[in-house]
Design brief:
The chain is an alpha/beta fold and 298 residues long. It has 2 domains: 2-108 and 225-297, Rossmann fold (3-Layer(aba) Sandwich); 112-222, Rossmann fold (3-Layer(aba) Sandwich), CATH 3.40.50.1000. 33% of the residues lie in helices and 20% in strands. The strands form 4 sheets. It has a 7-stranded parallel sheet, with helices on both faces. Strands 8-7-9-10-13 form a 5-stranded parallel sheet. A two-stranded antiparallel sheet has the order 3-4. Strand 15 (265-269), helix 10 (280-287) and strand 16 form a beta-alpha-beta unit. Helix 6 (169-181) packs parallel to helix 7 (205-216). The longest helix is centred in the N-terminal third of the chain and has 13 residues, at 2-14. The radius of gyration is 19 Å and the shape is globular. The two termini are 21 Å apart.
Protein backbone atom coordinates (compact mmCIF):
# COMPACT_ATOMS: atom_id res chain seq x y z
CA UNK A 1 0.00 0.00 0.00
CA UNK A 2 2.84 2.44 0.76
CA UNK A 3 4.10 2.48 -2.86
CA UNK A 4 0.57 3.10 -4.09
CA UNK A 5 0.07 5.81 -1.47
CA UNK A 6 3.40 7.40 -2.39
CA UNK A 7 2.39 7.59 -6.06
CA UNK A 8 -0.95 9.13 -5.15
CA UNK A 9 0.71 11.67 -2.87
CA UNK A 10 3.19 12.61 -5.60
CA UNK A 11 0.25 13.10 -7.96
CA UNK A 12 -1.40 15.49 -5.51
CA UNK A 13 1.87 17.41 -5.11
CA UNK A 14 2.11 17.79 -8.88
CA UNK A 15 -1.29 19.51 -9.17
CA UNK A 16 -0.96 21.86 -6.19
CA UNK A 17 -0.91 24.86 -8.55
CA UNK A 18 -4.55 24.14 -9.51
CA UNK A 19 -5.77 23.98 -5.91
CA UNK A 20 -6.85 26.85 -3.63
CA UNK A 21 -4.65 28.67 -1.13
CA UNK A 22 -5.09 28.68 2.64
CA UNK A 23 -3.43 29.66 5.91
CA UNK A 24 -2.14 26.92 8.21
CA UNK A 25 -0.82 26.57 11.76
CA UNK A 26 2.92 26.15 12.29
CA UNK A 27 2.48 22.56 13.44
CA UNK A 28 -0.38 20.20 14.25
CA UNK A 29 -1.50 19.09 17.69
CA UNK A 30 -1.61 15.33 18.29
CA UNK A 31 -4.57 13.41 19.70
CA UNK A 32 -5.75 9.82 19.77
CA UNK A 33 -9.32 10.14 18.56
CA UNK A 34 -11.87 12.67 17.38
CA UNK A 35 -13.51 12.41 20.77
CA UNK A 36 -10.41 13.95 22.35
CA UNK A 37 -10.73 17.21 20.40
CA UNK A 38 -14.44 17.61 19.62
CA UNK A 39 -15.48 19.62 22.68
CA UNK A 40 -14.36 22.99 21.31
CA UNK A 41 -16.40 22.66 18.10
CA UNK A 42 -20.10 23.02 17.34
CA UNK A 43 -20.10 21.33 13.91
CA UNK A 44 -18.07 18.34 12.71
CA UNK A 45 -17.72 17.79 8.96
CA UNK A 46 -16.62 14.28 8.06
CA UNK A 47 -15.07 12.93 4.91
CA UNK A 48 -16.46 9.51 3.97
CA UNK A 49 -13.81 7.31 2.33
CA UNK A 50 -10.95 6.74 4.78
CA UNK A 51 -12.91 8.21 7.71
CA UNK A 52 -16.28 6.45 7.81
CA UNK A 53 -15.65 3.60 5.39
CA UNK A 54 -13.10 1.90 3.20
CA UNK A 55 -14.96 0.90 0.06
CA UNK A 56 -17.97 -1.14 1.18
CA UNK A 57 -16.63 -1.74 4.69
CA UNK A 58 -17.47 0.60 7.59
CA UNK A 59 -14.55 1.64 9.77
CA UNK A 60 -14.78 0.20 13.26
CA UNK A 61 -16.14 2.69 15.78
CA UNK A 62 -17.26 5.29 13.23
CA UNK A 63 -21.00 4.88 13.81
CA UNK A 64 -20.51 4.92 17.58
CA UNK A 65 -18.42 8.10 17.35
CA UNK A 66 -21.14 9.85 15.36
CA UNK A 67 -23.72 8.84 17.95
CA UNK A 68 -21.50 10.22 20.72
CA UNK A 69 -21.03 13.51 18.88
CA UNK A 70 -24.77 13.91 18.44
CA UNK A 71 -25.34 13.09 22.10
CA UNK A 72 -22.91 15.90 22.95
CA UNK A 73 -25.00 18.34 20.91
CA UNK A 74 -22.71 18.52 17.88
CA UNK A 75 -23.97 19.14 14.34
CA UNK A 76 -22.57 16.26 12.25
CA UNK A 77 -22.40 16.32 8.46
CA UNK A 78 -20.73 14.19 5.80
CA UNK A 79 -18.95 16.22 3.12
CA UNK A 80 -17.90 13.78 0.44
CA UNK A 81 -16.44 13.90 -3.06
CA UNK A 82 -18.45 10.82 -3.96
CA UNK A 83 -20.29 11.81 -7.14
CA UNK A 84 -20.73 8.62 -9.10
CA UNK A 85 -24.26 7.68 -8.06
CA UNK A 86 -27.52 9.40 -7.06
CA UNK A 87 -28.21 10.73 -3.56
CA UNK A 88 -30.89 8.12 -2.84
CA UNK A 89 -28.38 5.38 -3.68
CA UNK A 90 -25.82 6.97 -1.37
CA UNK A 91 -28.30 7.17 1.52
CA UNK A 92 -29.22 3.51 1.07
CA UNK A 93 -25.53 2.65 1.08
CA UNK A 94 -24.87 4.52 4.32
CA UNK A 95 -27.80 2.71 5.91
CA UNK A 96 -26.41 -0.63 4.73
CA UNK A 97 -23.04 0.26 6.30
CA UNK A 98 -24.71 0.99 9.65
CA UNK A 99 -24.97 4.80 9.53
CA UNK A 100 -28.21 6.67 10.18
CA UNK A 101 -27.57 9.97 8.43
CA UNK A 102 -30.50 12.08 7.31
CA UNK A 103 -30.33 13.39 3.74
CA UNK A 104 -29.58 16.95 4.90
CA UNK A 105 -26.59 15.61 6.85
CA UNK A 106 -24.87 14.45 3.65
CA UNK A 107 -23.41 16.90 1.14
CA UNK A 108 -21.68 15.54 -1.95
CA UNK A 109 -19.69 16.93 -4.83
CA UNK A 110 -22.45 15.58 -7.08
CA UNK A 111 -24.81 18.04 -5.37
CA UNK A 112 -22.24 20.80 -5.83
CA UNK A 113 -22.06 19.90 -9.52
CA UNK A 114 -25.83 19.95 -9.94
CA UNK A 115 -26.03 23.29 -8.13
CA UNK A 116 -23.36 24.71 -10.45
CA UNK A 117 -25.08 23.40 -13.57
CA UNK A 118 -28.16 25.50 -12.82
CA UNK A 119 -26.12 28.52 -13.91
CA UNK A 120 -24.53 26.96 -17.00
CA UNK A 121 -25.65 27.86 -20.50
CA UNK A 122 -27.48 25.03 -22.34
CA UNK A 123 -25.21 22.78 -24.38
CA UNK A 124 -24.75 19.12 -25.30
CA UNK A 125 -22.79 17.52 -22.46
CA UNK A 126 -20.71 14.37 -22.68
CA UNK A 127 -20.82 12.42 -19.41
CA UNK A 128 -17.86 10.60 -17.89
CA UNK A 129 -20.01 8.41 -15.68
CA UNK A 130 -21.04 4.78 -15.38
CA UNK A 131 -24.48 4.42 -16.99
CA UNK A 132 -25.75 1.93 -14.38
CA UNK A 133 -28.20 4.49 -12.94
CA UNK A 134 -29.09 6.08 -16.24
CA UNK A 135 -29.40 9.86 -16.27
CA UNK A 136 -30.88 10.02 -12.76
CA UNK A 137 -30.46 13.60 -11.45
CA UNK A 138 -29.15 14.70 -14.85
CA UNK A 139 -32.46 14.36 -16.70
CA UNK A 140 -32.77 18.13 -17.07
CA UNK A 141 -29.54 18.31 -19.07
CA UNK A 142 -28.93 17.57 -22.72
CA UNK A 143 -26.39 14.85 -21.92
CA UNK A 144 -25.09 11.55 -23.26
CA UNK A 145 -22.67 9.02 -21.81
CA UNK A 146 -19.21 8.90 -23.35
CA UNK A 147 -18.17 5.39 -24.31
CA UNK A 148 -16.06 3.75 -26.99
CA UNK A 149 -17.52 5.55 -30.01
CA UNK A 150 -15.39 8.56 -31.07
CA UNK A 151 -18.50 10.21 -32.52
CA UNK A 152 -19.83 10.86 -29.01
CA UNK A 153 -16.73 12.87 -28.13
CA UNK A 154 -17.01 14.92 -31.29
CA UNK A 155 -20.70 15.65 -30.64
CA UNK A 156 -20.20 16.84 -27.07
CA UNK A 157 -20.11 20.62 -26.58
CA UNK A 158 -18.77 20.22 -23.06
CA UNK A 159 -17.71 17.43 -20.71
CA UNK A 160 -18.90 16.52 -17.21
CA UNK A 161 -16.44 14.26 -15.39
CA UNK A 162 -18.60 12.78 -12.64
CA UNK A 163 -17.50 9.20 -11.93
CA UNK A 164 -14.59 7.02 -12.99
CA UNK A 165 -16.16 3.58 -12.54
CA UNK A 166 -15.88 1.91 -15.94
CA UNK A 167 -13.71 4.67 -17.38
CA UNK A 168 -10.77 3.25 -19.33
CA UNK A 169 -7.44 4.49 -20.65
CA UNK A 170 -8.80 4.02 -24.18
CA UNK A 171 -11.73 6.32 -23.42
CA UNK A 172 -9.40 8.80 -21.77
CA UNK A 173 -7.31 8.89 -24.96
CA UNK A 174 -10.43 9.56 -27.02
CA UNK A 175 -11.35 12.40 -24.70
CA UNK A 176 -7.88 13.95 -24.75
CA UNK A 177 -7.67 13.73 -28.53
CA UNK A 178 -11.12 15.27 -28.99
CA UNK A 179 -10.47 18.18 -26.64
CA UNK A 180 -6.96 18.79 -27.96
CA UNK A 181 -8.45 19.11 -31.46
CA UNK A 182 -11.37 21.29 -30.31
CA UNK A 183 -11.23 22.65 -26.74
CA UNK A 184 -14.53 22.70 -24.86
CA UNK A 185 -15.55 23.33 -21.22
CA UNK A 186 -14.75 20.57 -18.73
CA UNK A 187 -16.51 20.44 -15.35
CA UNK A 188 -15.34 17.94 -12.76
CA UNK A 189 -17.74 16.59 -10.15
CA UNK A 190 -15.10 14.78 -8.09
CA UNK A 191 -11.63 16.36 -7.68
CA UNK A 192 -10.24 13.31 -5.83
CA UNK A 193 -7.25 11.68 -7.48
CA UNK A 194 -7.68 8.46 -5.49
CA UNK A 195 -10.09 6.91 -2.97
CA UNK A 196 -9.34 4.17 -0.42
CA UNK A 197 -11.07 0.87 -1.11
CA UNK A 198 -10.74 -2.67 0.20
CA UNK A 199 -8.06 -3.67 -2.31
CA UNK A 200 -6.14 -0.38 -2.47
CA UNK A 201 -6.58 3.08 -3.93
CA UNK A 202 -8.94 3.54 -6.88
CA UNK A 203 -8.34 6.18 -9.54
CA UNK A 204 -11.00 8.87 -9.33
CA UNK A 205 -12.18 11.61 -11.74
CA UNK A 206 -9.58 14.08 -10.49
CA UNK A 207 -6.83 11.79 -11.76
CA UNK A 208 -8.27 11.86 -15.27
CA UNK A 209 -9.17 15.56 -15.14
CA UNK A 210 -5.67 16.65 -14.18
CA UNK A 211 -4.22 14.36 -16.85
CA UNK A 212 -6.54 15.97 -19.37
CA UNK A 213 -5.49 19.45 -18.23
CA UNK A 214 -1.81 18.54 -18.49
CA UNK A 215 -2.28 17.12 -21.99
CA UNK A 216 -4.51 19.83 -23.48
CA UNK A 217 -3.97 23.03 -21.48
CA UNK A 218 -7.69 23.18 -20.69
CA UNK A 219 -8.47 24.47 -17.20
CA UNK A 220 -11.29 22.34 -15.75
CA UNK A 221 -13.82 23.70 -13.29
CA UNK A 222 -13.56 21.55 -10.15
CA UNK A 223 -16.57 21.09 -7.86
CA UNK A 224 -15.85 19.32 -4.59
CA UNK A 225 -13.18 19.41 -1.91
CA UNK A 226 -10.86 21.34 -1.68
CA UNK A 227 -12.90 23.92 -3.64
CA UNK A 228 -15.46 26.01 -1.81
CA UNK A 229 -18.67 25.14 -3.67
CA UNK A 230 -19.30 21.95 -1.70
CA UNK A 231 -18.51 23.71 1.59
CA UNK A 232 -20.89 26.54 0.73
CA UNK A 233 -23.68 23.98 0.42
CA UNK A 234 -22.76 22.56 3.84
CA UNK A 235 -22.57 26.01 5.42
CA UNK A 236 -26.06 26.83 4.15
CA UNK A 237 -27.34 24.03 6.41
CA UNK A 238 -25.64 25.14 9.64
CA UNK A 239 -24.92 28.29 11.66
CA UNK A 240 -21.58 27.97 13.57
CA UNK A 241 -18.79 30.49 12.98
CA UNK A 242 -16.00 29.01 10.81
CA UNK A 243 -13.57 28.43 13.69
CA UNK A 244 -16.26 26.44 15.51
CA UNK A 245 -16.34 24.03 12.55
CA UNK A 246 -13.95 21.07 12.33
CA UNK A 247 -13.26 19.33 9.00
CA UNK A 248 -12.10 15.74 9.51
CA UNK A 249 -10.51 13.80 6.66
CA UNK A 250 -7.74 11.50 5.51
CA UNK A 251 -6.34 13.53 2.60
CA UNK A 252 -4.20 16.65 2.91
CA UNK A 253 -4.92 18.08 -0.54
CA UNK A 254 -8.73 17.76 -0.36
CA UNK A 255 -10.08 17.58 3.20
CA UNK A 256 -7.41 19.54 5.06
CA UNK A 257 -6.67 22.12 2.36
CA UNK A 258 -10.38 22.62 1.67
CA UNK A 259 -11.27 23.04 5.32
CA UNK A 260 -8.43 25.49 5.90
CA UNK A 261 -9.41 27.43 2.77
CA UNK A 262 -12.84 27.95 4.34
CA UNK A 263 -11.37 29.05 7.67
CA UNK A 264 -12.37 25.83 9.46
CA UNK A 265 -10.20 23.93 11.91
CA UNK A 266 -8.99 20.63 10.45
CA UNK A 267 -8.10 17.15 11.68
CA UNK A 268 -6.16 14.59 9.66
CA UNK A 269 -7.06 10.93 10.34
CA UNK A 270 -4.16 8.56 9.76
CA UNK A 271 -5.29 4.99 10.46
CA UNK A 272 -7.07 4.52 7.11
CA UNK A 273 -7.05 6.34 3.81
CA UNK A 274 -4.70 7.87 1.31
CA UNK A 275 -1.65 8.31 3.58
CA UNK A 276 -1.53 4.80 5.06
CA UNK A 277 2.04 3.52 4.87
CA UNK A 278 3.58 6.97 4.52
CA UNK A 279 5.40 9.13 7.06
CA UNK A 280 2.65 11.60 7.93
CA UNK A 281 5.04 14.27 9.26
CA UNK A 282 7.06 14.07 6.04
CA UNK A 283 3.87 14.33 3.96
CA UNK A 284 2.79 17.44 5.87
CA UNK A 285 6.22 19.02 5.47
CA UNK A 286 6.45 18.26 1.74
CA UNK A 287 2.95 19.47 0.98
CA UNK A 288 3.03 22.56 3.18
CA UNK A 289 -0.56 21.68 4.14
CA UNK A 290 -0.68 21.58 7.94
CA UNK A 291 -3.77 20.34 9.83
CA UNK A 292 -4.69 21.75 13.21
CA UNK A 293 -4.81 18.19 14.56
CA UNK A 294 -3.46 14.79 13.63
CA UNK A 295 -5.54 11.96 15.08
CA UNK A 296 -5.10 8.21 14.83
CA UNK A 297 -8.75 7.35 14.28
CA UNK A 298 -12.20 8.79 14.36
Amino acid sequence: MSEEAARAFAAYLSVRHRLPEAAFPDRPQRAGTLGDIADEFDAILLDAYGVLNVGERPIDGAAARIAALRAAGKRVMVVSNSAGYPKRQMMARYSRLGFDFAPDEVVTSREALLHHMAGEAPRRWGLVLNDAHGLSEFEHLDAAFLGDDPAGYDAAQGVLMVGSDGWTEARQRLLVEALAARPRPVIVGNPDIVAPRENGLSLEPGHFAHGLADATGISPVFLGKPFRGIFDLACARMTPAPRRVLMVGDTLHTDILGGAHMGFATALVTDHGSLVGLDVDDAIARSGIVPDFVIDRI
